[in-house]
What we know:
By secondary structure, the protein is mostly helical. 56% of the residues lie in helices and 0% in strands. It contains four helices and no strands.
Amino acid sequence: xxxxxxxxxxxxxxxxxxxxxxxxxxxxxxxxxxxxxxxxxxxxxxxxxxxxxxxxxxxxxxxxxxxxxxxxxxxxx
Length: 77
């Protein structure tokens, strides 16, 4: 059975950001939703501090921004 991100089918990033770029969407989903979903910045923020802190505009490969979000949220708790 293939592993995939549990949020893959409902991720707002794919419902808005890449909607007009099907080839880019397919490649991005393969890499960040199936092959290596634990490295997805959106997944990392969701697991670490909650989905409510994931901006729709956060790209899956933007791990630096993800770390900033996590640091900011944890500092405010």
